[in-house]
Specification:
The protein is an alpha+beta fold.
Length: 714
C-alpha cells in the first residue's frame, strides 16, 4: 500500500511538473545588445528638443532621421511603442491575458504577418524598407543602451514590426470590428470581446467617436490672400493612437512637422514648407459578409462555391494567454480561409469576410511618398495608391491649391444586392473584382467657393453648394457617408458663411463650442424640455434654458451633454443605434450630478476637467463640437476629458515656401514620463485655446533648445 501511495505521489508530481512545463511562458527571443549597438553605428541623427521638449530630428539621410525619430519617441513613450509591437505581432494576450485573446486571434487571422513575409521585398521600395529598418534600429539602440530600459518581450524590434503596425491598425478605423461583432451576435462572450477589440487596444472609450475636423481655405476666400490649413484629429489622449509631435528634416528633402502614432516612422498628418494635409475618419462600406454552406457544421473542411465544393485553406494559429506569474495557457485554433477572405465559425453559421486593405502592406509606402511630396501632383500621386483604405483627406499648399478627397478603397462589387446583409457565399458573381480608383469617390479640387471642410460628415457637404459632389453620381453600394454631425453643421455655417476669412477668424471658428439648433443633441434637449415627467420638472427647466453653448461657466451644459452622451445614438449621430429611453438617461445623469456635486447644475468647468498629473483645468467644448471634448467618469471627483481635440496644427502660407506653423498638444511631449517638465507643460496653453510656434530653422531652435544631442554614429 505504501508503495502504491508513493507511486501515486510520484505520478502526481510528474503530472504537476509536466503541467508547469506546459504552462510555463517561454522566454523572450534573444536580444543581442552588442549587435544592436553595432547596427546603430550605421546611422547618425541630431535630436534637438525645443522649449517644450518636442524633438526636432536632423540627419543626412531619411534613414538617419527615422533612426533618430525612433530613439526620441522611445525616450518619451517606449511603453506604448512596445504595446504596438506586441499587438501587431498578435502576442498581446501573453502579457495582458484573456482580454487581449480575441485581439490576438483577429490579428493573426487577418494574416498580416504572412502578407508581409511574402510582399516585403516586392511591394515596398528600397527607400521605404531602409526607413523601416532604420526606425527598428533606433528602437533597438534605445533599449540596448540600458539593459533595464525595456521589457524583452518586444525585442528585437524589426522592420516587419514597423510595417505590421500600419497594416494591423487600418481596418479598425473604418469599422471592421463592428462587422465582426455583428457576425458573432448571440455568442455573448465572443461578441463582447470582438466588439471591444478597438476599445481594448486603441484605448477608445465606448462614448468616444474617432472623429476629426479638417479645413482648408484658398486665397480667394482669405481676407489677406493666404492659404490656410487646420489639422485637427480627434483621438484618445493616451494609448496607441494618441498623437505625438515631432519635426523631421533630412538633407534628402524630407521636411515635415506633425503628428505621429507610437511605432510610426513617418508624419501621419501635418505640414512642411511646401504643403500639408489633414485626415478625418470616414465610414465607407469596405466590409462584406458571406454566408457559407459547409460540409460539416461541427468541423467544416469544404464550402460550396460555383456549383461545387472547395477545400478551405487551413492555417493553425497559436498564441498564449497569460494566467498568472510566469504561466500562460497555450492556445491553438484553426483558421479557415475561403476565396472571399478569413472565415469565422459561429453559433449562427459559418461566415467569410471580405474587407478593404486585406494583405496590402503598402500603407507605409504611401505615407512615405506623401511625406516626400514637393507639390500637389506628387501628393495626389501618392493618394492614388489607395494603400490607406479609408480616411477623408484635406490638402493645402503654398501655391494656393486646396483639395478634399473622400479617400476610400471601394471594392468593385455587383450593383444589385443589399450589401448590408450577408450574401450567398456560393455565388461567384458576388466576389469582389478589384478596387475602384481615387477618382471614383467624391472629391473637390480647387473649388470656386475657396474652401473645403470635413468633420466626419457627408462628403456631399464638403464645400460651397456650387462645388459639392452630387450624391446621385455615387451608387448606394459604394457606401458613401450620408450622415451629418453637429460639427459638420457648424463647420459649414462658419467657414461657408464667411466669404472673407481673416487669420484670427480661421482659428476662432475651429474653437467653436456651440451645438446647432438643428443638431441631434439640441433636438433631444428640446424634446426632454417640452414634455417632462412629473419628477423631471427641475431638469426640464434647466434644459429649456440652455443656449447650446459649452463654456466653462455654463450650468445647463453638464445635464444636457451627459444625458445626450448616455443616449449615445443622439450624441454620435449613429443612425443605426437602438433608440434608448431618454427620460431614464436624464434621471440617471441627474442623480449622478446630485451625488457628485450636490446639485444638478454644476458649471461645465466644475463637472469636466483636463487632468494630467498635478494639473486640473476647465475646458470649453464638448462631444461633437468643433472644440471637441469627450468626458469620462473618474471616480468621485469631476469627470476627466479623455479625448477629442488633442494635437492640433495650423499652417498659414502667404506664398510658396513661406509658411507659418502653430501647434498645440493637450499634455506635452513626455508622453509617459511624469517626472519630466514636459509631461503636462502644454496643458494650460491648450486649455486657454492658445498656441505655440515651433522654431522651423536651426538657429531659432538652438536658441531655445532644452537638449541637443546626437545618437548613432561612430
Amino acid at each position: 500500500m505504501l508503495k502504491i501511495l508513493r507511486f501515486g505521489a510520484l505520478a502526481l508530481l510528474v503530472l504537476l511538473a509536466g503541467a508547469a512545463l506546459y504552462l510555463k511562458t517561454p522566454g523572450p527571443a534573444p536580444f543581442d545588445r552588442e549587435e544592436a549597438l553595432a547596427e546603430a553605428r550605421a546611422y547618425e541623427a541630431r535630436i534637438t528638443r525645443d522649449a517644450w521638449g518636442v524633438p526636432h530630428i536632423y540627419g543626412k539621410r531619411d534613414a538617419d532621421v527615422a533612426f533618430g525619430l525612433a530613439y526620441a519617441h522611445a525616450e518619451d513613450d517606449w511603453e506604448t511603442i512596445e504595446e504596438v509591437i506586441l499587438f501587431s505581432r498578435g502576442v498581446l494576450a501573453q502579457r495582458d491575458g484573456e482580454d487581449a485573446a480575441v485581439t490576438d486571434y483577429l490579428i493573426r487571422a487577418m494574416g498580416s504577418a504572412e502578407a508581409i513575409a511574402e510582399k516585403y521585398e516586392i511591394d515596398l521600395s528600397p527607400e521605404t524598407r531602409a526607413l523601416a529598418e532604420a526606425y527598428a534600429a533606433g528602437l533597438n539602440f534605445y533599449c540596448a543602451e540600458d539593459a533595464d530600459r525595456c521589457a524583452r518581450d518586444a525585442l528585437p524590434a524589426t522592420a516587419q514590426d514597423v510595417v505590421a503596425g500600419f497594416a494591423s491598425r487600418q481596418p479598425f478605423f473604418y469599422g471592421l470590428d463592428d462587422q465582426l461583432k455583428a457576425i458573432f451576435e448571440g455568442d455573448v462572450e465572443i461578441e463582447k470581446r470582438a466588439g471591444t477589440a478597438r476599445e481594448a487596444f486603441l484605448n477608445v472609450p465606448k462614448e468616444f467617436e474617432l472623429g476629426s475636423n479638417a479645413v482648408a481655405v484658398a486665397p480667394v476666400r482669405s481676407a489677406d490672400g493666404h492659404t490656410r490649413l487646420m489639422v485637427n484629429s480627434h483621438q484618445p489622449y493616451t494609448g496607441p493612437v494618441a498623437w505625438y509631435e515631432a519635426r523631421v528634416k533630412s538633407e534628402e528633402g524630407w521636411d515635415m512637422i506633425g503628428g505621429i502614432f507610437p511605432g510610426a516612422p513617418l508624419i501621419l498628418h501635418g505640414a512642411g514648407p511646401d504643403l500639408g494635409w489633414a485626415f478625418t475618419v470616414n465610414k465607407p462600406d469596405l466590409v462584406d459578409v458571406y454566408a457559407l454552406e459547409v460540409d460539416n457544421a461541427k468541423k467544416p473542411e469544404k464550402y460550396r462555391f460555383d456549383g461545387g465544393w472547395r477545400d478551405f485553406e487551413v492555417r493553425e494559429i497559436k498564441f498564449r494567454v497569460h494566467l498568472f506569474g510566469p504561466f500562460s495557457l497555450p492556445v491553438t485554433r484553426r483558421a479557415l480561409y475561403s476565396v472571399h477572405g478569413p472565415v469565422f465559425e459561429t453559433d449562427n453559421g459559418v461566415f467569410a469576410v471580405s474587407y478593404a486593405g486585406r494583405d496590402d502592406i503598402r500603407a507605409i509606402e504611401q505615407y512615405y511618398r506623401m511625406n516626400k511630396a514637393q507639390d500637389y501632383a506628387d501628393w495626389r500621386a501618392a493618394m492614388e495608391m489607395l494603400a490607406l483604405p479609408s480616411l477623408n483627406a484635406v490638402y493645402a499648399d503654398g501655391d494656393g491649391v486646396i483639395a478634399y478627397y473622400y479617400n476610400a478603397a471601394i471594392p468593385v462589387r455587383a450593383a444589385g444586392p443589399d450589401w448590408s446583409r450577408a450574401q450567398d457565399g456560393s455565388d461567384p458573381a458576388l466576389l469582389w473584382q478589384g478596387t475602384r480608383t481615387l477618382n471614383d469617390a467624391p472629391q473637390v479640387v480647387m473649388p470656386r467657393s475657396g474652401y473645403v471642410v470635413n468633420a466626419n460628415h457627408t462628403p456631399f457637404q464638403s464645400s460651397g453648394p456650387e462645388d459639392n459632389p452630387e450624391a446621385d453620381k455615387f451608387p448606394a453600394h459604394y457606401g458613401v457617408d450620408t450622415r451629418t454631425t453637429n460639427r459638420g453643421i457648424r463647420i459649414q455655417a462658419l467657414y461657408g458663411g464667411d466669404p472673407s476669412i481673416t487669420g484670427e477668424e480661421f482659428v476662432a471658428y475651429k474653437m467653436d463650442h456651440l451645438y446647432a439648433p438643428d443638431s441631434r443633441v439640441m433636438e433631444l434637449v428640446k424634446e426632454l424640455a417640452r414634455t417632462p415627467a412629473e419628477d423631471l420638472q427641475e431638469e426640464a427647466a434647466l434644459l429649456a434654458a440652455w443656449n447650446g453653448a459649452v463654456t466653462t461657466d455654463n450650468r445647463s451644459a453638464p445635464l444636457a451633454i451627459l444625458t445626450a452622451q448616455a443616449a449615445r445614438g443622439y450624441l454620435l449621430n449613429d443612425e443605426g443605434a437602438e433608440t434608448p429611453d431618454y427620460e431614464a438617461a436624464l434621471r440617471e445623469v441627474s442623480a449622478e450630478l446630485k451625488e457628485k456635486f450636490g446639485r444638478i447644475d454644476p458649471t461645465w468647468g466644475e463637472a469636466v476637467r483636463l487632468k494630467r498629473g498635478d494639473v486640473s483645468l476647465p475646458l470649453d467644448g464638448g462631444p461633437d463640437t468643433l472644440r471637441a471634448v469627450y468626458p469620462q467618469e473618474d471616480g468621485e471627483g469631476p469627470l476627466k476629458s479623455v479625448g477629442g481635440d488633442t494635437y492640433i496644427l495650423y499652417a498659414d502660407w502667404s506664398g510658396a515656401r513661406d509658411v507659418e506653423i502653430k501647434t498645440i498638444h493637450q499634455f506635452g511631449a513626455a508622453t509617459s514620463r511624469p517626472a519630466s517638465p514636459h509631461y503636462n507643460d502644454q496643458a494650460p496653453v491648450f486649455a486657454a485655446e492658445e498656441w505655440k510656434t515651433p522654431p522651423m530653422d536651426l538657429q531659432s531652435l538652438i536658441a531655445e533648445a532644452t537638449r541637443d544631442y546626437t545618437v548613432g554614429g561612430e
